[in-house]
Amino acid sequence: MKALVYHGPGKKAWEEVPKPIIKEQTDAIVKIVKTTICGTDLHIMKGDLPAVTDGRIIGHEGIGIIDEAGSAVANYKKGDHVLISCITSCGKCENCKKAMYSHCEKGGWILGNLIDGTQAEYVRIPYADNSLYPIPEDADEEAMVMLSDVLPTGFECGVLSGKVKPGDTIAIIGAGPIGMAALLTSQFYSPAEIIVIDMDDNRLAVAKTFGATHTINSSNENALDRVMGLTNDKGVDVAIEAVGIVPTFELCESIVGAGGHIANIGVHGKSVTLHLETLWSKNLTITTHLVDTVTIPMLFKTVQGKKIDPKKLITHRFKLDQIMEAYEAFGNAAKEKTLKVILTNKEEFTNRKSYQSNN
Ligand SMILES: [Zn+2]
Ligand SMILES: [Zn+2]
After folding, report:
1. Which of 79, 83, 104, 304 could form a disulfide with 89, with the two C-beta atoms 3.0–4.6 Å apart?
2. Which ligand is nearest to the CA of 59?
3. Can you give the residue range of the structural domain that contains 234?
4. CA dihedral angle for residue 199, residue 203, residue 208, residue 210, rounded to 10 degrees
């Protein structure tokens, strides 16, 4: 089969590799129908995640069809349509029992990181019963791909950790796919004002169409002054950090109001200054959170019920074997106006009928 293989910083190739096989009877092999590229994959390509080694197949999002299920897999059989969670979870360890799948003792975020991932024609999913979710055959597959990572991450780590509630004024710093997912899912709770801050005018314009009430381009406006002006100097109830750099986290510290919440989503590579000299008396919480994906079933219902349309996040579509081009478009997001890209295994579509009748 073909897969996107990481060969060290700056090096990747779409190349022939062995098809994965069942290693444990709790595994399933999934034929990928659609997948995507995550900002985290770009970090991997730069060499920011040294745990990812030469030869690793990248990718942790996607939907597909069960090609083979181990004998201990109870919930899935060949031909079933499934959504792949970016988080692998055994469902049995102490952390899984607390629904903290991100810290599963045998799993967590391993796909496309410590084990081979989804930017491939086939992928091996450990603990398939707990790490996959069933989807109907007629589900909107592109929308479903947004449920692997983007939507639950924005929702769990931003909106739920930030305790967004009706009437709140919230600020989302970073209008990439994750910030946009927080923007879409925060509206379940009817915040009164949603301020989106970014340095890309195109993304800010898109954020307006997704429900932002105010946008601030922090490259040519003073974001702190603007937020204070918009909130009568009170600051926001919830500041959601969706970038992962020092200035954006420190901006959250300066714009959060008394009793507020800072919900960090960004992946940080450097330490930040915690301004306790101003924050100590503010009755606020700061949360960090790696997505558990426990909200996938709930988010799935909101998508099926048309309460939310995550397809809005998709700007570019490619065939799976055009993945090198897709990386170009995703890596040059400002120029190409990219949010999420969708990669489709074309062969799967033409063969689907025969594939199913062969079972
Ligand atoms: Zn991701
Ligand atoms: Zn576990």
Report:
1. 104
2. 1
3. 152-288
4. -140
